[in-house]
Write a structure and sequence with these properties.
Layout lengths: L11 H6 L9 E4 L4 E4 L6 E4 L14 E2 L1
Antiparallel strand pairs: 1-2, 2-3, 3-4
InterPro entries: Trm112-like
Pfam families: Trm112p
């Protein structure tokens, strides 16, 4: 059976103020991977979003894109 992805549901005003904890660049939503991805060119990190919709903005929990 195929897994159904519902994407990431975060309020727009929250996305406006969230920044990458490593380089302070803005974050973009990757709905397919359920991540927030750094838009900067320095660190290239992606941060997971839990099933409850909570972004985990810990550098140790991030993956390199």
């Amino acid at each position: 059976m195929a897994e159904v992805s519902i994407g990431v549901e975060l309020p727009a005003d929250l996305l406006e103020i969230l920044v990458c904890p490593a380089c302070h660049s803005s974050l973009a939503v990757d709905h397919d991977r359920r991540e927030l991805v750094c838009t900067g060119t320095v660190c290239g990190l992606a941060f997971p979003v839990t099933d409850e919709g909570i972004p985990v903005l810990l550098i140790d929990e991030a993956r390199k894109v």
